[in-house]
Design goal:
The complex is a heterodimer. By secondary structure, chain A is an all-alpha fold. Chain A is built from six helices and no strands. Chain A is about 55% helix and about 0% strand. In chain B, about 90% of the residues lie in helices and about 0% in strands.
């Protein structure tokens, strides 16, 4: 007599469905992990492609990326120090050009929510 | 009753009464805001929310620009100059110390900004018409955290000046050695 046909197991019967459920679960898990890393690392605060920030995205200062690398090797003499001073002073001037996070735009008075009438 | 047993009952009771008292005081402080003040917050709710939103955007841009600039100065200039000085056999310990402190302050700037941004987001998410007290408290918190960011930026600028001064000192001593 021919070998008895084996009854398919539950796993064998639903393997495609199980595969899809597992794939969705793993995708969800990886999304949660990556989102928590995105938020906790501070990358979220730097991401100007978020909704509502696109308007300022084109105002990112491209000059920062163009800051010239000073050579880490070579002689140290008056000429090389002057070359460094020139590069450094240029960036120092940019750093001090505007008082960053200055003013008081968040004070209750500025927002019109202070206690005074 | 045993004294130890009495103490075991009395001390938790005192702690409970004290904590209720503290809660009562803080609750009373929150309730200190009078009706008139709350009405003012409700009245200017939309306007202040718009201001917060605009500030959030402009500060995000400022954070990106400042962060890149300060990072560039550290990695592309200061560290490289220190390496050059050190590999040429000169003493660069003072310059290196300032650079290390600067890097720590830069990390502090990143952390302070995250704390500020989270507080500002929290203030933005509060419904100021329904919860004027919570909104006011959140704004005050964000205001303080923004001032912390400003102080850290001032500290970074101070360190850039310190490095510049130390550079001059180094140059002077080097030229003296050469002559």
């Amino acid at each position: 007599m021919a070998a008895e046909e084996q009854k398919p197991t539950f796993l064998g019967q639903h393997r495609f469905l199980i595969l899809i459920i597992l794939a969705v679960f793993i995708t969800g898990l990886l999304t949660v992990i990556s989102m928590s890393m995105y938020i906790s690392s501070g990358a979220a605060q730097l991401d100007l492609s978020r909704p509502g920030y696109r308007a300022v995205q084109d105002q990112v200062d491209r000059e920062n990326r163009a800051v010239q690398n000073y050579s880490a090797v070579g002689p140290v003499n008056e000429e090389s120090i002057n070359e460094f001073k020139e590069l450094y002073d240029e960036q120092l001037k940019r750093a001090k050009a505007v008082e960053a996070f200055g003013g008081d735009p968040l004070s209750p008075k500025s927002l019109g929510i202070d206690a005074a009438n | 009753m045993n004294i130890k047993l009495k103490l075991a009952v009395i001390i938790p009771l005192i702690a409970l009464v004290a904590s209720v008292g503290v809660l009562g005081v803080s609750s009373a402080q929150s309730n200190e805001m009078n009706q008139e003040h709350m009405e003012k917050i409700r009245k200017n709710c939309l306007q202040s929310k718009n201001s917060l939103s605009q500030l959030h955007r402009s500060d995000a841009l400022l954070r990106v620009n400042r962060g890149q600039l300060y990072e560039s100065i550290s990695t592309k200039l200061m560290s490289r100059f220190n390496s050059r000085v050190s590999s040429a056999g000169h003493n660069s310990s003072n310059l290196s110390t300032i650079t290390r402190d600067y890097a720590q302050e830069l990390d502090q700037f990143r952390e302070d900004y995250i704390a500020y941004e989270e507080q500002l987001s929290s203030a933005e998410s509060i419904n100021c018409t329904k919860q004027p007290v919570a909104f006011y408290d959140a704004v005050v918190g964000a205001h303080e955290k923004r001032q912390t960011v400003r102080d850290t930026v001032a500290g970074l600028n101070q360190m850039l000046d310190d490095y510049r001064r130390e550079l001059l000192r180094f140059e002077t001593s080097l030229l003296k050695e050469d002559n």
